[in-house]
Amino acid sequence: MTTVDLRRATTADARDIAGVWLRSFSAALPTVRRAHDDDAVRWWFANIVVPQQETWVAVAESTVAGLLVLDGPELAQLYLDLPWRGRGIGDQLVDLAKQLRPDGLTLWTFQINEPARRFYRRHGFVAVEYTDGQRNEEREPDVRYVWSKAS
């Protein structure tokens, strides 16, 4: 497991966070149509996500290696930069989310993202709803997972 510093994100982290998100999304979901271009994603992280949502970063070797965004009980975003995958950072971020939301978590992921689905199942999340994607911006079939401490 890689040693990382998990800390709340600041506005100074927004560009790095957006970069992690953009690289990770493109690598993990090459067939999924992105609803927004790179500049819009950077603006969204800088002006909406970091200032308005509970945003955490995993910093390793002085670089943002991953991000976690919590919006109430929803695990809204969990992304790792490509060189940092498979080093336990995602596990640390999910454990942090569970500590911060002991009453339970919910999240959405795309049905096509089988590695993410396996990851969440391994962490005790249970699929509770499948959709055709008409309610998300990408129009991609998705699945909602729920974690409860009681499960």
TrEMBL record:
<dbReference type="InterPro" id="IPR016181">
    <property type="entry name" value="Acyl_CoA_acyltransferase"/>
</dbReference>
<keyword id="KW-0012">Acyltransferase</keyword>
<dbReference type="InterPro" id="IPR000182">
    <property type="entry name" value="GNAT_dom"/>
</dbReference>
<dbReference type="Pfam" id="PF13508">
    <property type="entry name" value="Acetyltransf_7"/>
</dbReference>
<feature type="domain" description="N-acetyltransferase">
    <location>
        <begin position="4"/>
        <end position="151"/>
    </location>
</feature>
<protein>
    <submittedName>
        <fullName>GNAT family N-acetyltransferase</fullName>
    </submittedName>
</protein>
<keyword id="KW-0808">Transferase</keyword>
<dbReference type="InterPro" id="IPR050832">
    <property type="entry name" value="Bact_Acetyltransf"/>
</dbReference>
